[in-house]
C-alpha cells in the first residue's frame, strides 16, 4: 500500500518519521486514557490484594469447615444433652499425640440397646459386623510437616474449648479456630488466659472466677509450664 | 467514550465483583459443606500415614496394623492374673483383695474415670440414674435395661475381682469397657465404687463426732 494514497487510516506509523496523515484525530475521550490507566492499575492492584488475601486467608479456607459425616453423629446430643465426657470416646487425648476417634464398638455400648432400629445408625452396625471402619471425614487437619501433640496440651491444662470451640453445642463438628502458625504462637507466647486446672480440661462451659490470666499465671508457675516457640517444637 | 466501550467496561467491572462476592459469601456462611478450599498444596499431604488414616496398601485399609493373633508385644505380657483378670492366680475364682495399693491418689483417679465412663449410665452417685438412662427411659426403649444401683446389696457382696471383671468384660446387658479403660484405671474405678457404696450407705455414726454439727439436716 502506498502511503501517499492513504487518506484516512492510522497515521504516524509509516516509519518515515513524519506524520503524513493530518486528517486523523484521536477522539476527545482518549485524552482521559492516561488517567483511566492509572485508575486501572491502582484499582487492579487493590483488587488483586483483596482477592488474594480473601482466597488465601484461613478465615475463608478453614474456619467454618463442617463436612457432612457418614453418620449424622451429634456432639450436641451426646456431649451436650447426655453430658458424656469427651474422653469416653476420644480416649487417646490425654496420653497420645492423636485424640483418636472412637471405634464403632464404642457407639454400640449404648446403641446395642438404644435406637437399635434407627436408619441413621446403619453404617455403625455394618462397621461392627464387618470390621470395616467408619470413614469419618477429618475436620481439623494440620499440614503434614507440622508436629502436634494433644497430650502435652491436655496435661498442661489447655481445655478442648480453647482450640475446638463449644463442640458440645455442635450438631456437626466445625472448625472455629484458624490453626495457623500465628495462632499457635499467639498462645505459646502468652498461654496464661487459656490455662485451667487439669481436671477441668473437658468442662466446656467452665470459666474461672475473676481474671483468667491470674489463675493461669498461678497454674503456669506451679506446673512450670513454658510452651516453646523454637521452630523444632512443631517442625521436626 | 463510545457507547459499546462504556457498556463493556461496566460489565467487566461488575463481573470483577463476582469473585470478591464469592469470597465474602463463603466467609459469612458458617457451615460450609463442600470440600476444603486449598489454594497451595505445599507439602500439606505427604506420602506417609498417620494413626487412624486410610492405607490402600492393606486389604482392610487400616494404617494402624492390628497385632497378629497369638502374639504378645514386648513388655505387654499380662501374666499377673489378679491384676489383669481380677482372678486368683491360676484359677477362675475372683480375688477379694485389691492386687495394688489403695491410696487417696488411686481413689481420686477412680472418681475421675468413673465420672467419665460410668456416670452417664449409673449416675454420678451410682444410683443408676445417669443421663443416658433417663433419656433411654424417656424414649421408652424396650431393649434398654436399667443400670444396676451400685450401692445395692448384691453389688456390695461382689468380690473386688468381680467388679473388675464387670468393667473389663461387661456383664449381661452391660457392655465391656476393657478396650476403653486400661487395667490400673479399672482398679481405680473399683476402689471408687467401693467408696460410693460406703458413702451411700453411711449413717450418722460414720461421721466423726466433731463434724456432725456441720451436716445439713
In short:
Chain A is mostly helical and 236 residues long. Chain A has helices at residues 33-56, 58-61, 75-81, 86-89, 104-111, 122-130, 150-155, 160-164, 181-189, 212-223, 231-234. In chain A, helix 5 packs across helix 6 (122-130).
Outline the secondary-structure elements.
The complex is a heterodimer of chains A (about 240) and B (about 220).
Chain A: H1 33-56, H2 58-61, H3 75-81, H4 86-89, H5 104-111, H6 122-130, H7 150-155, H8 160-164, H9 181-189, H10 212-223, H11 231-234
Chain B: H1 3-28, H2 81-85, H3 104-117, H4 119-122, H5 131-138, H6 153-157, H7 160-169, H8 183-200
Helix pairs in contact in B: 3-8, 7-8
Features:
heterodimer; A: 236 residues; mainly alpha; 11 helices; 39% helix; disordered N terminus; B: 217 residues; 8 helices; 41% helix
Task: Note down, in words, how this protein is organized.
The complex is a heterodimer of chains A (236) and B (217). With 236 residues, chain A is mainly α. Among the domains of chain A are: 32-59; 65-101 and 136-233, no CATH class. In chain A, 39% of the residues lie in helices and 0% in strands. Chain A contains eleven helices and no strands. In chain A, helix 5 packs across helix 6. Chain B is mainly α. In chain B, 41% of the residues lie in helices and 0% in strands. Chain B is built from eight helices and no strands. The N and C termini of chain B lie far apart (93 Å). At the A-B interface, helix 1, helix 2 and helix 5 of A face helix 1, helix 3 and helix 5 of B.
Amino acid at each position: 500500500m502506498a502511503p501517499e494514497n492513504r487518506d484516512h487510516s492510522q497515521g504516524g506509523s509509516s516509519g518515515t518519521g513524519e506524520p503524513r496523515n493530518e486528517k486523523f484525530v484521536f477522539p476527545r475521550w482518549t485524552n482521559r486514557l492516561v488517567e483511566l490507566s492509572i485508575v486501572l492499575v491502582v484499582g487492579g492492584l487493590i483488587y488483586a490484594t483483596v482477592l488474594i488475601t480473601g482466597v488465601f486467608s484461613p478465615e475463608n479456607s478453614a474456619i467454618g469447615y463442617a463436612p457432612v459425616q457418614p453418620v449424622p453423629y451429634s456432639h450436641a446430643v451426646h456431649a451436650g444433652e447426655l453430658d458424656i465426657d469427651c474422653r469416653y470416646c476420644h480416649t487417646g487425648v490425654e496420653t497420645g499425640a492423636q485424640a483418636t476417634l472412637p471405634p464403632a464398638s464404642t457407639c454400640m455400648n449404648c446403641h446395642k440397646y438404644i435406637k437399635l432400629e434407627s436408619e441413621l445408625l446403619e453404617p455403625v452396625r455394618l462397621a461392627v459386623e464387618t470390621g470395616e471402619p467408619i470413614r469419618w471425614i477429618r475436620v481439623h487437619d494440620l499440614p503434614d510437616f507440622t508436629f502436634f501433640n494433644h497430650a502435652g496440651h491436655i496435661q498442661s491444662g489447655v481445655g478442648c474449648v480453647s482450640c475446638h470451640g463449644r463442640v458440645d453445642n455442635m450438631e456437626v463438628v466445625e472448625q472455629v479456630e484458624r490453626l495457623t502458625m500465628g495462632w499457635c504462637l499467639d498462645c505459646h507466647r502468652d498461654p496464661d488466659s487459656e490455662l485451667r486446672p487439669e481436671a477441668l480440661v473437658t468442662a466446656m462451659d467452665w470459666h474461672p472466677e475473676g481474671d483468667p490470666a491470674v489463675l493461669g499465671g498461678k497454674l503456669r508457675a506451679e506446673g512450670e509450664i513454658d510452651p516453646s516457640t523454637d521452630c523444632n517444637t512443631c517442625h521436626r | 467514550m463510545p457507547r459499546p466501550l462504556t457498556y463493556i467496561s461496566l460489565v467487566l467491572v461488575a463481573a470483577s465483583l463476582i469473585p470478591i462476592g464469592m469470597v465474602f459469601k463463603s466467609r459469612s456462611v458458617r457451615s460450609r459443606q463442600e470440600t476444603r478450599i486449598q489454594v497451595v498444596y505445599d507439602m500439606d499431604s505427604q506420602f506417609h500415614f498417620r494413626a487412624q488414616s486410610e492405607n490402600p496398601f492393606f486389604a482392610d485399609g487400616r494404617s494402624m496394623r492390628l497385632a497378629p493373633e497369638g502374639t504378645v508385644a514386648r513388655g505387654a505380657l499380662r501374666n499377673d492374673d489378679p491384676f489383669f483378670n481380677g482372678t486368683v492366680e491360676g484359677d477362675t475364682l475372683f480375688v477379694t483383695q485389691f492386687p495394688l495399693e489403695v491410696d487417696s491418689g488411686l481413689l481420686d483417679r477412680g472418681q475421675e474415670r468413673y465420672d467419665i465412663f460410668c456416670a452417664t449410665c449409673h449416675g454420678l452417685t451410682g444410683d443408676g440414674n445417669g443421663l443416658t438412662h433417663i433419656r433411654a427411659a424417656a424414649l421408652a426403649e424396650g431393649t434398654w435395661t436399667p443400670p444396676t444401683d451400685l450401692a445395692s446389696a448384691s453389688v456390695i457382696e461382689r468380690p473386688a475381682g468381680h467388679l473388675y471383671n464387670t468393667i473389663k468384660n461387661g456383664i449381661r446387658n452391660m457392655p465391656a469397657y476393657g478396650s476403653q479403660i486400661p487395667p490400673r484405671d479399672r482398679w481405680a474405678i473399683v476402689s471408687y465404687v467401693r467408696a460410693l457404696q460406703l458413702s451411700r450407705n453411711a449413717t450418722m455414726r460414720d461421721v466423726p463426732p466433731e463434724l456432725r454439727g456441720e451436716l445439713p439436716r
